[in-house]
Amino acid sequence: MRVLFNGRAKHDYLSDALALLSGWTREGEQIRRTLVLDDTQHAALTERVAVVADALRLRPEISRRADRTHIKVGHGDGEPLTEGEVLLAARIEDAVRAVTTS
């Protein structure tokens, strides 16, 4: 059975889901995360995220400056954040745990 969400309920659902993702900040219709990773961890994370993002047909922005990896998910062009983008952020968290604990 599929549950239909009206605009307000959907927004609340996404806000609740985002609240469970520690370290992510919301800026308008984008969510961002900054991590301190070495070059090897950054490369491994980028590779893992690419696999998940391709499956979800999403394009996060991942960049590296000094020892920090910056991740941005969302369009930023007025388009609302989607369930898929929040799911991608959760999968990115899984990938972060995998590359930082190995």
Automatic annotation (TrEMBL):
According to its UniProt record, which protein family does this protein belong to?
Belongs to the pterin-4-alpha-carbinolamine dehydratase family.
Q: What is this protein called?
A: Putative pterin-4-alpha-carbinolamine dehydratase
Among Gene3D superfamilies, the record links this protein to:
Transcriptional coactivator/pterin dehydratase (3.30.1360.20)
Q: Which GO terms describe its molecular function?
A: 4-alpha-hydroxytetrahydrobiopterin dehydratase activity
Q: What InterPro entries does the annotation carry?
A: PCD_sf (IPR036428), Pterin_deHydtase (IPR001533)
Task: Please tell me which top-level EC class this enzyme sits in.
Answer: lyase
Keyword field contains Lyase:
yes
Which branch of life, at top level?
Bacteria
Keyword Lyase annotated: yes
The protein's Enzyme Commission number: 4.2.1.96
Coiled coil, from the record = none
List UniProt keywords, sorted A-Z: Lyase
Recorded catalytic activity of this chain's protein: (4aS,6R)-4a-hydroxy-L-erythro-5,6,7,8-tetrahydrobiopterin = (6R)-L-erythro-6,7-dihydrobiopterin + H2O
Taxonomic path: Bacteria, Bacillati, Actinomycetota, Actinomycetes, Micromonosporales
